[in-house]
Amino acid sequence: MCGHNMFRQRQWSHVPVTTSNAICIFLSCINIFVLLFLCIVSNTTETAATTVKLPGNVSVPAVITFGDSIVDTGNNNNNFKTLARCNFLPYGKDLKGGMPTGRFSNGKVPSDLLVEAFGIKELLPAYLDPTLQPEDLLTGVVIAAGGAGYDPLTAQLAGVASLSDQLKQFQEYVEKLKGIAGEERTNFIVANCLIFVVAGSNDISNTYFLSGARKLEYDVPSYTDFMLNYASQFVKDLYGLGARRIGVLNVPPIGCVPSQRTVGGGMLRECDDKQNQASQLFNFKLSAEMDGLNKNLPNSRVVYIDIYNPLLDLIINPTKYGFEVVNKGCCGSGIIEVTKLCNQFQPAGTCSDDSKYVFWDSYHPTESAFKIIVQQVLDKYANRFF
């Protein structure tokens, strides 16, 4: 190789430079150039496509997500205490290789789409994935757990890691990162990475309305205050651990997801207005609180992110986005199947074209819907982090 021969210049000095020698040296260098070029091309094709243009002096070394099943990529796979698992077909059927990974959709979820948009990597791995490699930590992980919420009782009822547990995992992650990259680089990664928090849906739909576990203690206004206190403290805790760029997504129109239409939408399976009104009330309070934290936490970029309206627009105006079905999921009958009920052995199977469906199962959107929502989020909010 050229590099190897350069280190042997003293030996070369004793070799006459003939025409044949010169040709060999030239061809050797050409081969090395071709190999390097192919390596670059290969690496480029494996790297996620960048859709967000960063300012010249800005770096986003990693993406980390906390919260629930919207961004979970497999942290519950080996948690046999919970039903909030989906590491089986037909989940993940549209991922590369068609293998289930624990993502609550047919393909990629927002964690993947976000890290891909910043050109970091194609998929964001689960922190508890047993195959996770040390170098994976450098560019970010998912710490979210399907079934979690701001209310600690929500995770307890689901048998999954609460946000408090996820915060402890983040502290563990930071210590591992220090062992790999050193303290200075770790501090840079934590301060400059993008952190997204996605929670609240399970609190409203499951803990408050479905199970009624909090109804004796709280009405809707006081329960949303209760949720807000935990949301605010979680962001403050992240800030205390060095995080500076924190995006907090609001609660979607949870009353319009297929399962909640079935449970609370009457014979016509319309959107459950009570759940949507609770979501809107919480979102109003969350927006004000996050704006306040952004102003009061020095050098922070705390960004409130609206996904309520983007998802609602897909539901109200599906044909504008190329969708046809909004009130049923692609999996099974589409009206109740989620997690264990959405499996490859059910007689109903899955729909023939999931790209026409806003929802994959009775609770979670399809990859097609996620892509539209995430792109709208990036278009509106990406520049607010820098």
Automatic annotation (TrEMBL):
Annotated SUPFAM superfamilies: SGNH hydrolase
Coiled-coil residues: none
Record bears the keyword Transmembrane helix: yes
Native source species: Prunus mume (Japanese apricot)
Protein name per its UniProtKB record: GDSL esterase/lipase EXL3-like
Family designation: Belongs to the 'GDSL' lipolytic enzyme family.
PANTHER family membership: GDSL ESTERASE/LIPASE EXL3, GDSL ESTERASE_LIPASE EXL2
Top-rank taxon: Eukaryota
Pfam families named in the record: Lipase_GDSL
Keywords: Membrane, Transmembrane, Transmembrane helix
Membrane-crossing residue ranges in chain numbering: 21-43
InterPro entries referenced in this protein's UniProt entry, alphabetically: GDSL, GDSL_lipolytic_enzyme, SGNH_hydro_sf, SGNH_plant_lipase-like
